[in-house]
User: What shape does this take?
Amino acid sequence: MKPVNIHEAKTHLSRLVAAIKSGAEAEVIIAQNGVPAARLVPLAKKPKPIWGLDKGKFVVPDKIDALNPEIEKMFYGEDD
Assistant: This one.
């Protein structure tokens, strides 16, 4: 796509965003007085987490919470 001047970009912003979002345009260059000044590009998509990826790779001990009172004392101190 050829560069778009600022006035045209303001007038047709929703159309330009729709073109970027749909993939019809990879980027839109916005020019000021014929000089490229900005670039409109799609946001990078965040990868979705893959749940259960480490399943079976380690074992959680049965008494994992046994030391919680001692750890709490380390953080908060003794109750008086």
Q: What stands out?
A: The chain has three helices and three strands. The beta strands are 4-5, 28-32, 35-40. The radius of gyration is 27 Å.
